[in-house]
Structure of Histidine kinase:
Amino acid sequence: MLVLAILLLVTPCSYSQQPVHTHSRNFQLLYANRKSDVQFLDSANTLLKSLYSKGIFFPKDTLIQILKPYKELAWSGNATFLPYRTYYFDHLANNAKMRNKLGEAIYFFEKVEQERKLSGNADGKDVLMQKCYLYTQNMLLDKAVQEYEKERHYFEGLPDKIRNGKVDRQQISNALYTLSPIASAYSYAKDSAKCASVIHLSQSILSAINAKSGLSAHDLPLFKFILLGMKFYHYRNLSNETKETHNNLEKTGNLIKSLGPESQHLKPFFEFNLATWYLDYFTEHKNADSASYYLNQLIKMPPVMPEEDFNIMVDSYRLKIWSIRKGDSKTTALIDHLLQSKDTLAKRKNEELSDLLYAFTDAEFNRDELEKSRIDKQRRTIWALAAVFATTLTGILFYSISQRSKRKLKQTLSTLNSTTNLTIAAMKESHQQSLKAEREQFAQDLHDGFSASVAAASHQVQALIAETDDPALANKLETLGIRLQNIYQHSRAKSHSWYRDSLVRQQASFTETIRFITDSALPDSQYNKDIQLEPEAVSLLNFEQRIVLIRTTQEALTNVLKHARASEVTIFLFRADDHIIFQLSDNGVGLSLSEDKLRRFQHKTSGLGWASMKSGIEEVGGTFSIASEDGFTLTIGFPVRNTEGKTA
């Protein structure tokens, strides 16, 4: 049961089914009482890891609902929250693994891998480790070996990297946790050479660690146990060396006895695995009494695997011991045949269910994302139509009032022109926002849909190459596989390019809009204009904040035209620490107010335009201030953490 050992070492826990409503409430309280968004995200990560360590897991839809505020923050557009996208999918993957949903777990682990590659993070091969473990646990040994063979050169190069100090502890642990089930897979497949090669590679990795820095008191017994497990199955399944197998079991027992205080938490898991190894050894050598002893010891141990799986394992051992006691070779052969048939059937069903669950999870998850995108687009469209309708009504009202005199008419037409420019700018921003969402969705679909299909086709071609004995057909398949790989790489590169281009287009659209409004209001022949908008600062503004700044610019420039008697106007947008700052200033006459009146003006703003401007800025989480020294300066600030218009 080496596969079980890997489960215990990677995620040691006591399995238990517990109600989830209490834990759902804990997440709600975390979000409601958060001191900051980052503090909530970190606390949620810690709470989930704690629950998993206790064997507590959730139905998929329940966990997605619980993590809804977590996901909204991770995908809010704030660069600080980007790493939490990886953690989000990691939680869904580990939860699926706890529920033994193989296809679902593989799907979400691949999403983890995609997010890491998009963010440029170093690959410690932990996703590969999880895949190899999951496939081997479900007896899909061929798939585990295929995943390992893709990265075999990486593992073979680890000893040299360790000696050169280019590998950290986590990468070393991931490597050994990956090599252990692969050695098991090769031993069950009766491939002695490859199994021995994996064991030798594991020993080389441990030797390189010892030569470089030595093993810690915690890692030493853990890694020794993994290596002993590999050797046990190599001796048992391949070499049939009874003495070496028994000696290996005794070494494992001595290792358990020598565990220090810092490693006592590993003892239950080591003892559980050792008991299963003794059971395998004694049932194979027809020693019913010794096998019964270890079976009774196993039953008395604390549960370290799902109850249903444990009961099936115990019943299988009981059946083997019963056939040994009966002493009928035909009965024993029949029982062995039935157990092998059960394993073969379970393997086939696991593979079918895994593929079905992977496809179902992919379709369901993408459907939810598309529905969310559709609702967001619909909301923006309704907002734009409402703005156009409101602007039209305002224009009609101004027009009817202005009929009293030519002066009023001229003023109204000017207002309508400004309002129309503002409406056009707002609609352009809305249009760019919709285009950005559509391009990002299309890039995601290309990345997750088409690229995944091409990758699957490439894997199938590789499988056909391995199965065919026809050299000509194998050459043709090899050529097809290379073409599929080229298509896969091109589609992935294209999806990343579209994702980046959508952000650049959105930044350029906002900058062009500000310049258009400024140039329309202030002729070059009368005004010197300096407009500097930092692209990073633009990217950190959300849709509502950009619209508010466009409106504010329009209102402030109207004030310059009417009252300032200025010749220079500057507009700056930049990031200062954790704030985005927007400043519009001129060299005109200013407001000519006393300090007391200026303070009241800032806080109460008697004018309708200024009051509306201040209210709009505060509604999207901004601050508003004015100064009237050497001209007029309007300053607006947005906290970076509020770039989605939420209060921290």
Observations:
- The chain has 25 helices and five strands.
- Residues 1-17, 604-608, 642-648 have pLDDT under 50 and may be disordered.
